[in-house]
């Protein structure tokens, strides 16, 4: 099969090459890939040489099952699916555990559905950590990115009053159209305290976002797009105006033993297919143009998601 493999001698650190077909484990299905969604994290790992040459990277992909799992779990041959894994998505064929496969409605846009696994699942699972959000204020930093866009929409659907943080003035109207009640350039500009923060940025924005938490509020750290150290000034954890019992936690998508990833992927795929969730695809093209997509993503010129179609 053909695959995009790590090649640290190439300018883009990637090359389209022939590699052996994957051999699925008994609990894995073999999927013929039709579309790939890029994430900043995996692209950054490739560009900075963190993966050995010959590795087939990739977390998110849609496709069709061509060999069902030998243990009888998961979808049958011919089923359209959306898949999540730590590697292997950037290829014509992918072996994926059935626990991280969701089914895709007939006629759905595979490219749009491919944006779901990392971005939408992360948004969904972090928002669940905040508990009941109906009528509560939820702040989302990095709101114009892949996770942020899904988080804004899902939080609005859950009845939250959403505060979206984006430094790009052009994104104000976009985020308001997605349902954000308040759009600010920086967490320090928030009009009043918030119940929860989904933080995609870290750095000094994370410090300001923590300062915006109400009593009993929590901040979940998801990303680190600012590439800055997080330094809390002396006194940051002293209760201010009675705002005590505030917390910070980290998040890793596949670390929750109670999460039903397959069911969540299937539900999210249905929501995107029905037009109730907008993935915000802003770059789309054949996978032979991978160097364009990765350069745009790494250069921070992309707002939303990039999709590669496997020809």
UniProtKB/TrEMBL annotation:
<dbReference type="GO" id="GO:0070402">
    <property type="term" value="F:NADPH binding"/>
</dbReference>
<dbReference type="Pfam" id="PF08240">
    <property type="entry name" value="ADH_N"/>
</dbReference>
<feature type="domain" description="Enoyl reductase (ER)">
    <location>
        <begin position="9"/>
        <end position="308"/>
    </location>
</feature>
<protein>
    <submittedName>
        <fullName>NADPH:quinone reductase-like Zn-dependent oxidoreductase</fullName>
    </submittedName>
</protein>
<dbReference type="InterPro" id="IPR020843">
    <property type="entry name" value="ER"/>
</dbReference>
<dbReference type="Pfam" id="PF00107">
    <property type="entry name" value="ADH_zinc_N"/>
</dbReference>
<dbReference type="InterPro" id="IPR013149">
    <property type="entry name" value="ADH-like_C"/>
</dbReference>
<dbReference type="InterPro" id="IPR013154">
    <property type="entry name" value="ADH-like_N"/>
</dbReference>
<dbReference type="GO" id="GO:0016651">
    <property type="term" value="F:oxidoreductase activity, acting on NAD(P)H"/>
</dbReference>
<keyword id="KW-0521">NADP</keyword>
<dbReference type="InterPro" id="IPR036291">
    <property type="entry name" value="NAD(P)-bd_dom_sf"/>
</dbReference>
<dbReference type="InterPro" id="IPR011032">
    <property type="entry name" value="GroES-like_sf"/>
</dbReference>
<keyword id="KW-0560">Oxidoreductase</keyword>
């Amino acid at each position: 099969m053909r695959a995009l493999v790590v090649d640290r001698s190439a300018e883009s650190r990637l090359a389209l090459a022939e590699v052996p077909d994957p051999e699925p484990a008994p609990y894995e299905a073999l999927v013929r890939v039709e579309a790939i969604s890029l994430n900043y994290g995996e692209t950054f790992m490739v560009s900075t040489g963190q993966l050995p040459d010959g590795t087939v990277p990739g977390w998110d992909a849609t496709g069709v099952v061509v060999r069902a799992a030998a243990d009888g779990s998961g979808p049958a041959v011919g089923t359209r699916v959306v898949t999540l894994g730590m590697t292997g998505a950037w290829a014509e064929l992918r072996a994926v555990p059935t626990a991280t496969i969701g089914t895709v409605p007939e006629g759905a846009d595979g490219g749009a559905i491919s944006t779901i696994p990392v971005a939408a699942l992360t948004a969904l699972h972090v928002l669940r950590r905040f508990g009941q959000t109906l009528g509560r204020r939820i702040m989302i930093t990095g709101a114009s990115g892949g996770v942020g866009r899904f988080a804004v929409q899902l939080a609005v659907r859950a009845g939250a009053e959403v505060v979206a943080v984006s430094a790009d003035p052009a994104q104000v109207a976009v985020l308001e159209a997605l349902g954000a009640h308040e759009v600010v350039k920086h967490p320090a500009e928030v009009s009043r305290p918030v119940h929860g923060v989904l933080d995609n940025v870290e750095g000094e924005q994370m410090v300001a976002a923590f300062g915006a938490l109400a009593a009993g509020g929590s901040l979940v750290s998801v990303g680190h797009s600012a590439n800055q150290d997080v330094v809390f000034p002396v006194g940051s954890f002293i209760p201010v105006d009675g705002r005590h019992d505030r917390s910070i936690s980290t998040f890793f998508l596949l670390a929750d033993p109670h999460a039903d990833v397959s069911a969540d992927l299937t539900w999210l795929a249905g929501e995107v297919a029905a037009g109730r969730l907008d993935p915000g695809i802003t770059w789309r093209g054949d996978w032979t143009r991978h160097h364009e997509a990765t350069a745009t993503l790494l250069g921070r010129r992309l707002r939303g998601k990039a999709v590669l179609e496997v020809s």
